Design the sequence.
């Protein structure tokens, strides 16, 4: 009888280990739902940007974040930062080790930025249709959600410069931003003009025209476009 019980215990322990290895994630109750292992997909942190000026990340410092993996698992209060060059999530595990959650493994991340004046949340999501050399693994900042989503792509790349006088070469991060709308998961690059939005919102054309007129929208700023899409999503 004891041998049978021991065999069952060993089976469940083995199954748990195999399951953990397959998912490459474990958690600890110490910090709520913090990710516990040092690297979700087996990659330890490596600083590849020591000779590059600026930062590859949304914020250079680690911020508390909520993370939803592509398989639906959720983690909160994770110290993380979003790499906008590789489109990966760099995090600190609850054992203090640093690692990466690899490309395509994160569905969404909400980063909480706190300062003396305000607390702001920045939500980035993946899984959108390919466009402009961006694939489903690329993160987009979600500015508005609903029938039409307003998204901002924030991509960083490394540019190399040559000082013609000294002959010295230097590297720095360059930022490229674009706005898109998402309809049924398909992206279109935003044109900052009334005709673009009136076509996308043609089912509510009269209300949209009135809103544009009442608010004197000039379609130049991100804030105004967000205001318009937010309004449409309430109709």
Sequence:
């Amino acid at each position: 009888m004891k041998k049978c019980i021991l065999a069952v215990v060993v089976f469940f322990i083995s199954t748990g280990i195999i399951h953990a290895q397959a998912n490459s994630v474990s958690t600890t109750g110490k910090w709520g739902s913090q990710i516990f292992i040092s690297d979700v997909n087996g990659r330890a942190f490596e600083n590849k940007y020591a000779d590059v000026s600026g930062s590859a990340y949304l914020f250079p410092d680690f911020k508390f974040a909520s993370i939803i993996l592509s398989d639906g698992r959720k983690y909160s209060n994770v110290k993380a930062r979003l790499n906008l060059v590789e489109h990966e999530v760099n995090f600190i595990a609850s054992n203090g080790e640093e690692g990466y959650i690899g490309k395509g493994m994160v569905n969404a991340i909400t980063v909480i930025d706190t300062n003396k004046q305000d607390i702001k949340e920045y939500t980035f999501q993946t899984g959108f249709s390919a466009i402009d050399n961006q694939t489903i693994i690329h993160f987009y900042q979600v500015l508005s959600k609903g029938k039409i989503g307003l998204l901002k792509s924030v991509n960083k790349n490394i540019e190399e410069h040559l000082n013609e006088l000294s002959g010295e070469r230097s590297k720095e991060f360059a930022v490229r931003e674009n706005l898109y709308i998402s309809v049924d998961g398909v992206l279109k690059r935003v044109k900052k003009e009334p005709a673009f939005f009136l076509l996308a919102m043609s089912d509510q054309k009269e209300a949209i025209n009135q809103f544009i007129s009442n608010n004197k929208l000039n379609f130049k700023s991100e804030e105004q476009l967000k205001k318009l899409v937010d309004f449409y999503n309430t109709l």
About this structure: Residues 2-136 form one domain. The chain has a mean pLDDT of 83.
